[in-house]
Amino acid sequence: MAKASEVRSGNVLRFNGELVIVEEYIHRTPGNLRAFFQAKMRNVNTGKLVEYRFRPDEEVEIARVETNNYQYLYDDGDFYVVMDPNNYEQYNIPKELFGEAARFLKDGMDVNVSFESDNPVMAELPTSVELEITYAEPAVKGDTTSGAMKYATVETGEEVRVPIFINQGDIIRIDTRSGNYIERANK
Q1: Domains of the chain, start order
Q2: Higher-scoring residue by pLDDT: 10, 51
Q3: Taking 90 as the threshold, does the pLDDT of residue 48 lie above it?
Q4: Which of 3, 76, 101, 179 has its Cα between 20 and 30 A from that of 126?
Q5: pLDDT band at 144 (very low <50, low <70, confident <90, very high)
Q6: Are 164 and 149 in contact (CB under 8 A)?
Q7: Which band of pLDDT confidence, cut at 50, 70 and 90, is reported for residue 141?
Q8: What is the largest distance, in Å, between two alpha-carbon atoms of the chain?
């Protein structure tokens, strides 16, 4: 157990029996009242945002979480299978831990997975990935308005909006958090 004054943003706490990630942690001293810590925490399992005020001497449980780099191997029903590149051990990670970004998972891609006592609690892709365009409509001649976009399909089967100059076979960089096109990548 630790004191509330020892908590920092980014810590994982066991709060009301659930694991939460501290997103914002601010020390406040309002006027002539007692000081407190205002915390914004996101539940690891549900994704809900929780706000709570800690007294400085309040005891909190900081969870021991280890985050490592793993290689994505394949989809196995309700799980994604990842491998530790150091010892070749494979782990089943529940699909919901990856969230919406999972639609850009590609075989062999590096992902970060966090474990708390052998239980996976968080998983994330890199902030941007490079994917090949497998299908794109040809650009219409004369359609040169600035910012003109069209839909294209990437190698994972996902449709993304890209500028009209992007063609089939091009490799593009995509932001995994929003699913937006960033730029054309060099081959």
Answers
A1: 2-62 (2.30.30.30), 66-124 (2.40.50.140), 130-184 (2.40.50.140)
A2: 51
A3: no
A4: 76
A5: low
A6: yes
A7: low
A8: 69
* Residue 144 phi, psi (nearest 5): -115, 20
| CB proximity list for 28: less than 8 A, separation 6 or greater | 35, 36, 37, 38
Tokens 């020390």 appear where?
27
Q: Are 88 and 81 a contacting pair, CB within 8 Å?
A: no
